[in-house]
Queue: 3 jobs
Job 1
Amino acid sequence: MAMSEGSSPGVTLPEAPASAGEGAVGDAGAAALAAGTGGRAKRTRVKAIMEATDDPLLGKTVAVKGWVRTKRDQKAFSFVEINDGSCMKGVQVVIPQDVPTYSAVERLTTGASVSVTGVVVESPGKGQRFEVKAQEVHVVGECPTEYPLQKKRHTLEFLRGIAHLRPRTNTIAAVARVRSALAQATHDFFREEGFLYLQSPIITASDCEGAGEMFRVTTLPSEVSKVPTLEDGSTDYSQDFFGKPAFLTVSGQLSGETHACALGDVYTFGPTFRAENSQTTRHLAEFWMIEPEMSFADLRDDMDNAEAFVKHVVSHAMEVCGSDLEFFNKFYDKELLQRLQRIKDKPFVRTEHERWLAETRYDTAVFVYDYPRDIKAFYMRDNEDGKTVAAMDLLVPGVGELIGGSQREERLEQLEAKMVEFNLSPEDYWWYNDLRRYGSVPHAGYGLGFERLVCYVTGVENIRDAIAFPRSPGSAEF
């Protein structure tokens, strides 16, 4: 069950005291800026201090730069927790009163940015091995009392309205780190498997899915009366920028196939767009897709690669984002780590479509394959029974479809017949058909919605929290 942002340790932010007056930035701020530019190479990330497995930094002077999470004042010291986004935890900085800028420190508020130089020492307190004893503290940027992230519970829905600030919360910061790790693991996996990375176009004239739910790209006048038309009253796109109808891509698959049929194995990883008027927690108008294409491959090869990929990226996230996943396991999905371990260790179940309909649901990843041809896309290869296609979906608990893939139809005659059946013009896809006309080979591929993968690995329920700036019907802020 998802929790409200702000109800976990380190997420509930304390009320900010009155804003600092003169002297809080001034010369100290200028010095901090100088230290933060020319001295950037010497900056020590909080993660290097808080997640060190040994003590190489003990007794060393470090420069820590980040944002204030909490501050406690005592008689001769102030204790300030600083977080720089590199990990879940913040580092405790002990600031003695004899620090020259202590008057500015006393007025520090939650959200202020600071630059601290000090020595790493063993911490006598609970919860951390090390802390920093400050020698110099500079306030880089003050944070006034109207800072939205105050000491109260903030729902994820509220945070979507301040998407520019929500990365400062534990949940969204952790999502961002996991997302980054998954992206890095994606490139690592395909490189190790011998795939080439292809940057497919965002503007296209092709509808890969044949659904017609595409965003149009045009420079024609916005005033209807000035739009050029043909004799039948339809829009004259010959006068548009590209000379024909153009759209934001719904998939990089067709471009991927062109290169797979020349270079062997390729993958694309980029933004895609669907003009679906859907307000569900699983759909976005703009989302990222991972789409590999493999030559000389069939549906079994497709499923083998997809399973290996998911296991690889999940393993990588568990290895490098341990504290973030523990946070999600504690506050969002108490079975998360157990579920991810199952995905990592156990073979995926594979079942034919009809058996899937007849059997109970599994509690692990399941490949469902050989779907009825009438409900799948035109480019999927017909099976010998004439009723099904060589298509598969990977279904995972809590998310549903994570991957959709198929063996592509490599036979020209069958492909052109299906285009007509799907009300597509073979002439518009002449270049796609050329792949079958000149040295055609069996090939297969799949698409994985990256935000759904992020949701699955983190346990976050709403896909709008798995991307920095979600785009959905009626929402294109920031």
Job 2
Amino acid sequence: MKQDRTFTQNDPLTPAEFAALGAGEVAYVKPMTSDELMRLYPHAPKIEPGLHLYTLLSADGAPILVTDTREAATANAWEHDLKMVSVH
């Protein structure tokens, strides 16, 4: 017989606490263009516009790596023992 369980937390996480979940442990790969990269991270080194890139991002969305292949981003995560998650 299946039993439903409900868990209620009395003190919800603050936005900062929620963003810190998985920091240094979880990452995801996001495709983006060099134009998007420059808009999202204006202090990043300037690169040619119109390039298709892949970013490896930490759980809180901070960039870890920018590369031209998904495989390179995934390999970097694996090399640094980061658990890859899918973001929908």
Job 3
Amino acid sequence: SYCLSVQSIQLKYVLNTLGIHLAMEFPSEDIFLMTASPVIKAVTNFKQVRET
């Protein structure tokens, strides 16, 4: 499992992109992204449908 702590609210897009990238690179791992922002965003049930 990987854990990333980010404290900037402006990084919402980066967190989403990073979560998707990590899920594609490490499909058998659980990905958990944590931010100090009150906005909670999660990548759940991600499945790669084709190779990019």
